[in-house]
Amino acid sequence: MSDTAKTAFLHGGLLALLFALQFVLPAYHHGNLARIMVLASFAIGFNVMFGYTGLLSLGHALFFAAGMYGMGLSVQILGFSPAPALIAGLIAGLVVAALVGALALRTVGVAFMIVTLMFAQAGYLTVLYFGSYTRGDEGFVIQQAQRMLWGIDLSDPANRYFAAFALFAVCLLTTLALVRSPFGKVLIAIRENEDRARMLGYDVFKYKLAAVIVSGTISAAAGAAYGLLFGYVGATFASVQYSIFPLLWVLLGGAGTVLGPFIGTLFMFYLIDLSSGITTAYMLIAGVVLVLLTLFAPQGLAGELRKRVWRGLP
Amino acid sequence: MTKIIKAPTRRSALKTLALGGGAAAAGASLPLWARYAQAQTSEPIRIGFQVHRTGIGAAYGRWYDRTTTAAVKRINDAGGINGRMVEVIAEDDGTDPKRGAEVVEKFATQHNCDIGFGTLFSHVVIGSAPRAGELKLPYFVVSEGHHVASGMLNRYTLQPGITDVKSQVIAMAPFVSENLGKKITMIYPDFAFGHDHRDYFSEAIAAQGGEVVAQIAIPPTETSFTKYFPKIPRETEVVYHVMVGPAVLTFVKELGEFFGPSRPEMFGFIDSLEAVDMGSAGLEFLDGTYFWEGNPRYAQADQTSHDKMYREAVGVDENGASVSDPRDVSTYAHMFGCWETLNVVKAGMEASGYQGPADRAALIEAVEAMGDMPLSDDHPQGAKRFNGKTHQVFGHQYISKVEDGRMNVVHTTSIEDTLYPDEVDYTAQSL
Fold first, then answer.
1. How far from the centroid of its chain's Cα atoms is residue A154's Cα?
2. Which of A139, A238, B67, B152 lies at a C-alpha separation of 20 to 30 Å from A291?
């Protein structure tokens, strides 16, 4: 079987499985998987920058929140319906990513991490500062009546699952196409050896900026969808822990793999969920598992798959 | 807290039923738990307790947990609800709205809880309530946020055991203007909790003929406050402060150093110092200042038998600390809400003849029909009045003066002082 056929089989198979699962999963896991698919989309966005371009951002919550607030405030204040509100969220994410990218990419390495972290913190404080619009740390509810997309009630579990699946499928397939395209190959080249990519004549800054914009926009799409599907917009999603989560998910699942973000998000979600049923020290269990994975599968779960089973895994 | 009894999974249930069915066909009976499921009324009533065990709300969560355990023990010792025992299924939400929503889903769809209960921090309530409404899970919060009565939430979310911040704040204005002064400077954290105080108190004090002469918002990341104090106008007669979080001790210490021996009157909300020992170094400056208390931390000279019983049941001494560790100070001004909410749930279930999840709508209607609740062992903080339209309870508020490191109640508001016009009618929403 050719690499292309294997790729189509594997990724198409995952999407087919996720589509089919909605008909058989019990209610609890059905709801969980919808949430996981949205969060995995966030991680996919992060992976474009970190996994494929080698840019470690510690401020991705800013993009997630830009999408969430772009959507939420346009519903709350401007009275937008969900479709234009989603577009507003995407535009907000795109603009913020372009601005942050244009400034932060003047730095490299540790400085880039710190600058992205600072931008995200500034974003978080901005949400709090404009509390009369955002309701600050408390956040606000997107009411059920405001979540009717073309007559479809997004608060209904089946509709929510399908919307989350559609978002995830679009993000997954977009990333897959991206990393297999010449553009994606250049990003990987930059990750592997930036100087060599520059020497070959590529405008590295331009490519990295494009990666930040794609990454930020995908993350913003996830943020906008999260707010719309689960009915809540809040400053917590702009806080530093939501910058760390996608890093964890991607590291666990496998940075620089298309499936890694989903696997990492799924794994982490159920690790917390199941261990919290066993002990109140569930974060300790999560920590121990993370240490073990770092020791024995340093490239993440999908990274190990690539190393041991199929070296051509995209 | 009772231990979690794991609900059988769908797969194990089907497997067991299949085995049981086969056995029945062979002349044997169904397995024990399957018979148990047939006789649903003998199952315990499951209360999903959304508890802040980790995160910023952990200090509150610990005491909410203890109060809930004590309240459930008392209910079970008295025969349970409608003849059924009450089982608490606790899940940590990490004081996080995302996890909070997941926990609510878990209560409804995995643990098969009859209700969700106990959430405190407003952002967690607001993040979780939409899911409770969608899942039609009665969600009894103990938050004191104005979110319920503001109309932001839904018909399945109720706050019958603790008053909201709006009623607390507006009830303070008459006392402050009549006893402390009419020119007030407010110092508050620059986020929603502080903004609520700023907005509600400014309006209420103006209605009393007073005036807020300065509003000083302090960013939540601030760790030192000295640069803000020169902004306090000289004409200030009262400083109204509601700082919260780990920096509060620094705040009080620096405020004391700024004013020295000659200070204006001081009025604060005990939220700043919940779970903090009043004997902590630096708090001497608070002597002679006033605090709002939801429920007086120190047992008062006129302590009611109900407060005495409640303290003993929860394990709190007369100074508001754990009987087993005097340094473990309770969140006494808030945690009574868990006790009272569970008693409201009991009364609602009994009034509606609650049998199981099919009766959730009837439970909501039964609680909405409640009105006055007298001071009693069920309501040891004081009498209450529930507003079925806004899903919010109203009650007495206490103002205490710090004297020799303990807080003595100097004024108790009437319930009428705490009322404000309805902002929503949840009963108009469908169930």
1. 20
2. A238
